[in-house]
Each structure stands twice: as structure tokens, then as C-alpha cells.
Sequence to fold (266 residues):
Amino acid sequence: MDNSKKKTVEPSEEGGKPAAGFDRKEIFDVLSSMLSELLDMKKESFSEDTMIFEELPLDSLQLYELVVDLEEKFSIRIPDEAIEKIQSVGDVVDMIANAEK
Amino acid sequence: MDAVEKDFAESLLHIFDNVLLTEEMALSKGYFSDLSIAELHTLNAIGPYEARTMTETANILGITIGTLTVAVDRLVKKKYVERQRDTKDRRIVRISLTRQGKLAYRMHSKFHRVLVKRIMDPLSEEERKILTRTITEIDSFVEEQYKKYSSGEQYKKIVRDDTEV
Fold:
């Protein structure tokens, strides 16, 4: 894979937002909407502390659906190594906030 | 060939066969049962991000544009790949993966990662290093042989040597 064109998203100067232009609250909002649609559960069922694999009925295909949709929505790249580290919904928010564009 | 070499040769052939067989079985029983291994490798060559030209993709796969065109036609029909014309130069056609194509790519790369993890997990750090070095050497050797066969003259030479034996 060609990594040469990737660059790490650094927080921009104004407002402490990541360069992608989304703050944690916005990311969480999009993420919980996606999970809600994917799993047919209420948006309020998710918090940053929700454990993705223990508490949610997410299979491996749905996990990748989520990853592909998040990449598209936020124009980021999520490498497999980052997915392997995910445990909670909050981890996904962190991963997106720090993702490579 | 002594006994150790014989065991090694047998295991090596088993690995080639079984990895392919397992990949095919996993595929046919999984979510993407309408894809062949060759088609999955085409998806891998296109990759999940920037759109690629046909020439780039054909080069990665080591196949002709004609062969790739047939493969891509099928993948477009199955909705794994899409074609776009370059906005600046309309003569250039780029191909990229659809959402479905990206999912198949991700699931397939997971298969390879799980395989590696299973092989590496029981090994010590030192054993991993030795295994990686050995595998890299085997890889270079096989690649060299492939190159010899793909250039016409060498190919003829090897065939002639074989017939003399």
C-alpha cells in the first residue's frame, strides 16, 4: 500500500479541533447514529464507555461496515492495526480524532 | 534428498495447497461467496483508497490489460468495482472499490492476519525472527525462479536442462 501520500491529522490552531474539522462530540454523534442503524438499537444505548465486542452484538462484517463508513464520512484512513486496538466506543472516537487523512 | 529434506518438501507443498484451499473454502462459505480467489486478488491490487488506472493494476497483478478488462467487467457487474473517467483527461479510466468491494478487501486481509497470528503466537521472539528470515529467503528464491521462467531465454534453458535429465 502507498503510504507516502498519507499525513497525520494534527489539531489545527483554531479551537483545538482536529484538522478533519470534527470534535469528539460530533464524532460520537455520527458514530452512535451509525451503530444505531447497523444494529437496529436506540442511539441512546451507546456511551463512550460501551464495550464494543462484549456489550454489542457486532459481528466482524458489521465491524468492517462501520470502519468503511467512518472512513468515507470523515475522509480518513483506518488501518487494521488501529481496529485491533479498539475496545470501547470511546476508543473508536479517539481513533477517528487521531486518524490519518 | 534426505529424510529432513523430504519432510520439508512435503510440508512446503502442503502449505501452498492448503492455504489456497482454505482461502477458497472460507470464501465460498462466507459473505462474499460470489467472488473467486483471483477476483479477490484483483480487489487487493486495486486497494481500498485512491482510484487506480488499468495499467497500474495490471502491472501489480502481472497480467495484461486485456485480461484485467475482462476481470474488471465481471467485478463491475457484481458491484465490487466501479469505473470513473478522469475529470481532466477523459481518455483515462480509473477503477476503485465500491463499499461492497472495500468490505470484501477488509475481510480478506483479516483472513491473512489471522493466519499470521496463529502461526506466530506460539513462537518466542527469537523463533519469530528465524522464521521470518527463513520465509523471506524462500520468498526471494521462488521469486528468482519465477523471473527466470518469465524471461524467454532462461525459460528455454531450464526446459532443455530438464529434458536432459
User: Anything to note?
Assistant: The two ends of chain A are 15 Å apart (CA to CA). Chain A has one domain: 24-97. Residues 24-97 of chain A form a domain with the Non-ribosomal Peptide Synthetase Peptidyl Carrier Protein; Chain A fold (CATH 1.10.1200.10). DSSP finds five helices and no strands in chain A.
